[in-house]
Design goal:
The complex is a heterodimer of chains A (about 160) and B (about 700). Chain A is an alpha+beta fold and about 160 residues long. Chain A folds into two domains: about 5-65, Orthogonal Bundle (Arc Repressor Mutant, subunit A), CATH 1.10.10; about 80-155, Glutaredoxin (3-Layer(aba) Sandwich). In chain A, about 45% of the residues lie in helices and about 15% in strands. Chain A is built from seven helices and five strands, in the order ααααβααββββα. Chain A has helices at about 5-15, 25-40, 45-55, 55-65, 85-90, 95-105, 145-155, and strands at about 80-85, 110, 115-120, 135, 140. In chain A, strands 2-3-1-4-5 form a five-stranded mixed sheet, covered by helices on one side. In chain A, a hairpin with a 2-residue loop joins β4 (about 135) and β5. Chain B is an alpha/beta fold. Chain B folds into four domains: about 5-90, Ubiquitin-like (UB roll); about 110-270, Alpha-Beta Plaits (2-Layer Sandwich), CATH 3.30.70; about 280-345 and about 480-675, Rossmann fold; about 350-475, Dimethylsulfoxide Reductase, domain 2, CATH 3.40.228.10. In chain B, about 25% of the residues lie in helices and about 20% in strands. In chain B, the strands form eight sheets. Chain B has a seven-stranded mixed sheet with strand order 15-14-27-26-25-16-17. A five-stranded mixed sheet of chain B has the order 2-1-5-3-4, with helices on one face. In chain B, about 55% of the residues are buried. The interface of A and B includes residues 43, 61, 65 and 66 of A.
Chain lengths: ~160, ~700
């Protein structure tokens, strides 16, 4: 499996961040960066990462299942993540998520038919001070109301 | 090792410094309950069941990972401990379906037992249990996630015990579950160790599930009849049917290890094509069912008329020592022939001769676990000799043994090997030579070799071993359950029991090729497999077998034989270890080969003495060198004892024979396993085999 030169450079750099013999520590960042380029965590991708870090594919598979931000199937171009953890829930996160579900006609980790938008109910993103928070790809939106959510979602469809 | 004083429940005991508390307690008769702790596997500390109170420790400690130290004071039954156990069990049961009445494990479930002994009767959890449908991962492995308590035993036995690593734990919290290697199915050895080791009914066996309750079975400890490793297996028998094979009591040379064949491939005994009545070729040239009395009478008459040097006898690699011994005795005395042979799969004969005048140089299965170094020559051990491979893996895990491989292709042992040499089988010895320096630095060595090393090459290999200047032991690999016993009992054209030279006769191939052969008696063998034919078209052929094999189809009389699971006797494994077979079931219409030989002798008016397994074994013990000093109590109680073949005095064979391993792998099938429905299902499963 081949990656872009940029990703290769990133991988090469990543493994130098950890002490000798602990290169497996680079697993999660490699999966995160790789997922962006590959689109999802495919079996071939897992195999390749396992090979590079001297793990067996099963060990990679275990990690992929554990972390909810690693996806075995591709998500949409815009991945909308709504937090329903304690702080956000208290400030209307759950209602926000329900609203998004109805608005998009999607459920947890589902992708719209055109592949543009996907939805995920996530745990704490560390934005509790500005709850309820949502994240679209890597962009945060704070103290989101249902009206604001509508506007954000409309914006994505264009 | 320094001893330390530890107080457990007020009793002062001594223990090795650094030993695990759970083990120290066990040795002193105190049970610290645990799910995830498993002797021989790496530590997990996942289940929290083994929490104990240690003085001066701020909170309860996990006994499974706690090394003992001087002055440690431990309480395993104090109030906080008892309370913690109850809470742990309450947690473990919080999502457990409690479907014990329909669970295979019910009655022998560790979670049941622990709840019975340590649990509380009620739960504070009122939440709805999370249900996930059961999954089938292979024809033999099913996984029921809700029952799983995530002890990681299956993951570790697959990784460490088998060296496969086909199982993992993924997802988290209440969703956490075991995942198989290939998304939704397993690609592995299909050994079923994960099922066996599961403390609950989460992993269940395709062949056993929903068949019986554990307490409704009889448990018969016998020896697996498939390969030469001689694993002890405990057959679960119900209504004269084998429903399960495992070895949970860890008795025998294999402990609890069994491969796919041992664990599942006993179902050949129930195959619909199993012969249950004798067959006689009629005037029209077709095999026709006949009564035992008619068939035996006919065969006895024919044998009497045709006895002489042109009578050929081909013995089996699966029949017992007693049967092999009696067969050659009957052939050499009553039938007056020297043409006796069997399908030879490894050169043991030359090894024994090469070790002339030396003793204690034949390795046992246990030696592979204890030896500081092991050299594997020209064999894919994990595929062909699963127990031996398992012993070596355990040796590396527990004792950091040095493993060296010299093989034509990649083998699983490469991963644990200090050095792996890739070389054509024909050049194996050159590969071995490359390891001279490394090997001579080892403290001791066991050399295991496959069928590529035979004749002169065995002598060269032994010469190499002896030149290293360290203690070396050897294993000549053979294929089948009693391949070694067939050799020891003298099913050879030039050697009698105990490798004593006899007047030479025809080898197996020579019998097939000889147009003058008057009669051929084949006991539990299939020499015509693969389209071979018999040169002597007029020979009277008698075949004793379980199925209508290629050879049986050519026979004039076919006598239905009993399988190894249907008789008593002894077998000798690849390392020369004698073990006892115990009759588990009976198949109507078949007879044990020993009984058949006895009845034929009686029909011919030949007196062979008392024909029963114990009497013949006594005769073997009295007359066959190597079998004369075996401690019977060990054998009778299901143990294994190594024979001491007399080294030396085995003349080079004047009869050209063929030694060829069938190279059966874990799944490819010998003559018995091709009648195993479950093994064929495993084989037909899509996906490459694990290598």
């Amino acid at each position: 499996m081949t990656f872009s030169p940029e990703l290769e450079a990133k991988f090469a750099d990543l493994v130098t961040h950890y002490p000798e013999g602990r290169q497996r520590a680079a697993l999660i960042p490699m999966l995160m960066f790789g997922q962006e380029e590959v689109g999802s965590i495919t079996p071939e991708f897992m195999e390749e990462v396992a090979k590079r870090l001297g793990l067996n594919t099963m060990q990679v598979d275990e990690v992929v299942g554990y972390y909810s931000m690693l996806h075995k199937k591709g998500m949409g171009k815009y991945h909308v993540q709504v937090c329903t953890n304690v702080a956000c829930m208290l400030r209307g996160g759950a209602e926000l998520y329900d609203h998004a579900c109805h608005k998009l006609g999607l459920g947890h980790k589902e992708v719209s038919a055109d592949g543009v938008i996907s939805l995920e109910e996530v745990e704490c993103m560390g934005a509790c001070s500005w709850a309820p928070a949502i994240q679209v790809n890597y962009d945060f939106h704070h103290e989101v109301t249902t009206e604001q959510l509508d506007t954000i979602l409309e914006g994505l469809k264009k | 090792m320094a001893l330390v004083n530890v107080t457990i429940n007020g009793v002062q005991v001594q223990a090795e410094n650094g030993a695990l508390l759970i083990e120290v307690a066990k040795q002193n008769g105190i049970e610290i309950p645990a799910f995830c702790y498993y002797e021989g596997m790496s530590l997990q500390a996942a289940c929290r069941m083994c929490l104990v109170e240690v003085e001066k420790a701020p909170k309860l400690m996990a006994g499974c990972t706690l090394p003992v130290a001087e002055g440690m004071v431990v309480r395993t039954e104090s109030e906080p401990v008892v309370k913690a156990r109850k809470t742990t069990l309450e947690f473990l049961l919080s999502n457990h379906p409690l479907d014990c009445p329909v669970c295979d494990k019910g009655g022998e479930c560790e979670l049941q037992d622990m709840t019975f002994k340590y649990g509380v009767g009620e739960s504070r959890f009122t939440e709805i249990k999370q249900h996930v449908p059961e999954k089938q991962w292979s024809p033999v492995v099913f996984y029921d996630a809700p029952r799983c308590i995530l002890c990681y035993r299956c993951v570790r036995v697959c990784n460490e015990g088998m060296g496969v690593g086909a199982l993992g734990v993924s997802y988290r919290g209440v969703n956490a579950e075991i995942i198989p290697s290939n998304g939704d199915h397993l690609e592995c050895d299909e050994c079923g160790s994960c099922i066996d080791i599961c403390p609950v009914g989460s992993l269940t066996s395709g062949i056993y599930r929903y068949k019986t309750r554990p307490w409704e079975m009889e448990h018969v400890g016998t020896v697996c009849t498939h390969c030469s490793n001689g694993c002890k297996t405990t057959l679960g028998v119900r209504n004269n049917e084998i429903v399960r094979g495992n070895n949970r009591d860890k008795s025998g040379i294999n402990g609890e290890f069994l491969c796919v064949k041992g664990r599942y491939a006993f179902d050949f005994t129930q195959h619909p094509e199993r012969l249950q009545t004798p067959l006689i070729r009629n005037a029209a040239g077709e095999l026709e069912e006949a009564s035992w009395s008619r068939a035996l009478k006919l065969v006895a008459e024919k044998f009497k008329a045709l006895a002489g040097p042109d009578f050929g006898v081909i013995g089996s690699t699966r029949t017992t020592n007693e049967e092999n011994y009696l067969l050659q005795k009957f052939a050499r005395t009553a039938l007056g022939t020297a043409s006796i042979d069997h399908h030879r799969t490894g050169d043991v004969v030359t090894l024994i001769d090469s070790l002339s005048g030396k003793t204690g140089q034949l390795a046992t299965a246990e030696d592979l676990y204890t030896s500081k170094a092991v050299l594997v020559v020209a064999s894919d051990l994990s595929q062909q000799q699963p127990l031996l491979a398992n012993k070596i893996r355990a040796n590396v895990r527990h004792h950091k043994a040095a493993v060296y491989t010299v093989t034509p292709g990649p083998v699983r042992e490469d991963k644990i090997a200090r050095k792996a040499i890739r070389i054509a089988e024909a050049d194996s010895l050159a590969g071995v030579e490359q390891l001279r320096e490394a090997l001579s630095k080892e403290a001791e060595l066991v050399i295991i070799y496959g069928d590529a090393i035979q004749g002169e090459k065995v002598r060269q290999l032994v010469a190499f071993g002896e030149s290293l200047g360290i203690p070396v032991k050897y294993v000549a690999l053979v294929d089948y359950a009693n391949s070694r016993g067939a050799l020891d009992m003298g099913l050879l054209p030039d050697l009698g029991p105990g490798y004593h030279a006899t007047a030479p006769g025809r080898s197996l191939q020579q019998m097939l090729d000889d147009p003058k052969l008057a009669a051929l008696w084949v006991v539990g063998s299939n020499p015509l497999k693969g389209g071979k034919s018999l040169a002597s078209t007029n020979a009277f052929v008698v075949v004793q077998d379980l199925f209508l094999t290629e050879t049986a189809q050519r026979a004039d009389v076919v006598l239905p034989a009993a399988s190894a699971y249907e008789k008593n006797g002894t077998v000798t494994n690849v390392c020369g270890q004698v073990q006892r077979l115990k009759k588990g079931i009976e198949t109507v219409g078949s007879k044990a080969d020993l009984a058949i030989i006895g009845l034929l002798a009686r029909g011919m008016g030949v007196n062979l003495g008392k024909v029963d397994a114990d009497a013949i074994f006594a005769e073997i013990a009295a007359s066959v060198p190597g079998y004369n000093q075996l401690p019977m109590p060990v054998i009778l109680t299901g143990g294994a004892v190594q024979t001491h073949p007399v080294n030396g005095g085995v003349p080079p064979s004047s009869v050209p024979g063929i030694i060829a391993s069938a190279r059966d792998t874990l799944f490819t099938t010998g003559s018995l396993t091709r009648y195993s429905k479950i093994l064929n299902e495993v084989l037909e499963k899509p996906g490459a085999l694990y290598s």
